[in-house]
Amino acid sequence: MNELRKLCASAAELDFKEGNVIWFKYFESNYLFFSTMLTSKGASAFRSKFLELVIEELKGEVNITEGKNQGLSKDVILTFFGSAIVGVVESYFTKGIPDPPHVAAEQLGILLDRNL
Question: Could you read off the pLDDT of 53-80 as tens digits, one per residue?
């Protein structure tokens, strides 16, 4: 989780598309670790910690005072997008998303940029 936090800090000025490419490159280079963590008996604990990290990183990106998310619950938005990100990453490791990692990362980033 600390390495992922460092990646987030280094990508803070990037849009979601570019930032996700950095994450997915890291996931790809550490495929064995993440696939083991997301498919083992301890997967739910790891997934919970990962979701906490993602939500924490998204907090500064959500604006509910104006724009498309005005008036919505910040907690609902964070849970929705945090779960979506974790779900895509988890699917990448458990179901083998057929797209190369950079394609999955770019598409996830486009969806986040479009909606946040």
Answer: 999 999 999 999 999 999 999 999 999 9
pTM above 0.90, yes or no: no
The count of structural domains within the chain is: 1
The whole domain housing 47 covers 2-115
- Residue with token string 């950079």: 102
Per-position DSSP letters for the chain, written without gaps between them: -HHHHHHHHHTTTS-HHHHHHHHHHHHHHTHHHHHHHHHSTTHHHHHHHHHHHHHHHHGGG---SSGGGTTS-HHHHHHHHHHHHHHHHHHHHHT--SS-HHHHHHHHHHHHHHH-
